[in-house]
Structures are given as structure tokens and as C-alpha cells.
Design a protein that fits this description.
Distance between the termini: 13 Å
Strand content: 25-35%
Structural class: alpha/beta
Number of helices: 7
Number of domains: 1
Strand order of the largest sheet: 6-5-4-3-2-1-14
Order of helices and strands: EEEHEHHEHHEEEEEEHEHEE
Largest sheet: 7 strands, mixed
CATH topology: Metallo-beta-lactamase, Chain A
């Protein structure tokens, strides 16, 4: 949307690398009409987003489709990788950061303690200090903590702790842009961090309620509470329905994100 902005601008450019839920769309073996849709907006890789400003390239979450996503949306370097939580659809592509490591050296990766512990089990060869496999990427780890902002590429990053069912996970605010995925509930003490937004990205899984994700009606309730200028739904299941028909029923300034969509935020 809007006028193209140079990457030298301090304004954020956001590219949705993936907007699907944990199975992606189409779901393997499914004959659901949305899975058979020919509309490219109904084909969704696992959820991930690229944020660019100046010459910075930051990715939030790298799931199992990460390689495919960055072949489709190439970037010259990766300055930071931020994790929301440890689930496979958000982390399984960690090994695919290797081309950036070979090109630029150690990579800055941001995660909380629980995510670090999980990844050390699942990607032990990346984290081991002795007898390292020579092809393993090296990571420079940064700890994300609730209510402690950090600086990245000249921007202030505000972690926002939300609940994924009962699991505390993180979203992030950069300037007036906030990215929240896999949210089921938002603690009251985090709400002030989400005021005055230009763009809110938040998950909306499907029409029916779900135990660990917001469904469409619940996500719209948060839009009413937070009052961002624009909202984009992500982490979308095939059970939400066809992109075109769902988006046509959404309120003004609320949209369904789709893979490769580019937007800008102040």
C-alpha cells in the first residue's frame, strides 16, 4: 500500500514472508476448497515477517519455509533474527541462516531463555562450543526479557509479552509498528505498549474459537480496544475461508495479510 519508499528511509518497510498457520495452506492431503484455491493469496507459507529500515534487514521467526521465503524475497544480508517462541512453525528454519553466516559472520539472534533452551536441544550442533561442525552457523545470542527494551540498528525494540494459551511468548513493537502472532490473550500491563500504533499485525486463525489462538471476532475486539490506524491479520488457517470473501467483510482499515504483501509504517 502507498508510495514506494527507499530503504534509506527511517520509515519501516514490512514484507510478509508467510501468513499461514502451522500446517500452511494448502494443507498436505486436504481437499478443502481453500486448499484448492487458485488465488495466490490463499497459498500461505508458515508465518514470518521481514522488516527493513535504512540498510537494516530484520526477520521475526524463521519457520520450515524460511529458505523458500528468502529465495522468493531475497535480501543481501540478515542483520537480526527475532524469535517470538519456540514452536516448530516459528523456528524450524534456523539452519537456513547459514548462507548469511558464511557471507557476513556471526548472526545476531534475539530470544528469551526458554526459547534458547529449546533450540539448544533441537539444534545442538549449532550451539556446541567444542568440536563444532565446521558448516554450522555461529549465533550471537541476545536475551529478550519482559519490560526491557533493546536497541537494534538505531531503533528501539519493545518486547510485548502475550499468552499463547498459557505459554508466555513475545511480540515486538518497532516505532509505531507492532507484530503479534499466536496470541490468545494479552495481559493488561502490556496494553499501554500497543497504543498509538500506525500498523498492528495480529493473528486471526479462523472463524471459530480456538484454545491457543485468537479467532476473527476476538482479534477484531482487540482492534477496537487498541485502535491502530491499520490492522493486518496473519497466522491464518484454511478454515478462515477464501481471502477475497473474508477481507471484503472486514471493517475499514482491517485487512488480511498475504504472502509477499509489502506495507509501510511510521
Amino acid at each position: 500500500m502507498g508510495k514506494y519508499l527507499s530503504l534509506n528511509s527511517r520509515m519501516l518497510k514490512i514484507t510478509f514472508l508467510g501468513t499461514g498457520t502451522s500446517q500452511g495452506i494448502p494443507v498436505i492431503g486436504s481437499s478443502h476448497p481453500v486448499c484448492l484455491s487458485e488465488d495466490p493469496r490463499d497459498k500461505r507459507l508458515r508465518v514470518s515477517v521481514l522488516i527493513q529500515w535504512d540498510n537494516q534487514h530484520c526477520v521475526i521467526d524463521c519457520g520450515p519455509d524460511f529458505r523458500q521465503q528468502l529465495l522468493r524475497t531475497p535480501i543481501p544480508r540478515l542483520d537480526a533474527l527475532l524469535f517470538t517462541h519456540e514452536h516448530a512453525d516459528h523456528t524450524a528454519g534456523l539452519d537456513d541462516v547459514r548462507p548469511f553466516f558464511f557471507k557476513q559472520g556471526k548472526l545476531d539472534v534475539y530470544m528469551d531463555q526458554r526459547v534458547e533452551q529449546s533450540l539448544k536441544i533441537r539444534f545442538g550442533y549449532i550451539f556446541q562450543e567444542e568440536d563444532r561442525y565446521p558448516g554450522a552457523p555461529e549465533l550471537r545470542l541476545h536475551r529478550v526479557e519482559k519490560d526491557r527494551d533493546f536497541s537494534l540498528g538505531g531503533k528501539q525494540i519493545t518486547p510485548i509479552q502475550v499468552l499463547h494459551n498459557t505459554l508466555p511468548i513475545f511480540g515486538y513493537r518497532i516505532d509505531n509498528f507492532a507484530y503479534l502472532t499466536d496470541v490468545k490473550s494479552l495481559p493488561e500491563d502490556q496494553i499501554p505498549k500497543l497504543k498509538g500504533l500506525d500498523v498492528l499485525v495480529i493473528n486471526a486463525l479462523r472463524e471459530e474459537p480456538h484454545p491457543s489462538h485468537l479467532h476473527k471476532a476476538a482479534a477484531l475486539e482487540w482492534v477496537d480496544i487498541l485502535q491502530p490506524k491499520r490492522t493486518y491479520f496473519t497466522h491464518i488457517s484454511h478454515l478462515m475461508g477464501f481471502h477475497q470473501s473474508v477481507e471484503s467483510q472486514l471493517p475499514q482499515n482491517v485487512f488480511l495479510a498475504y504472502d509477499t504483501l509489502e506495507i509501510h509504517s511510521n
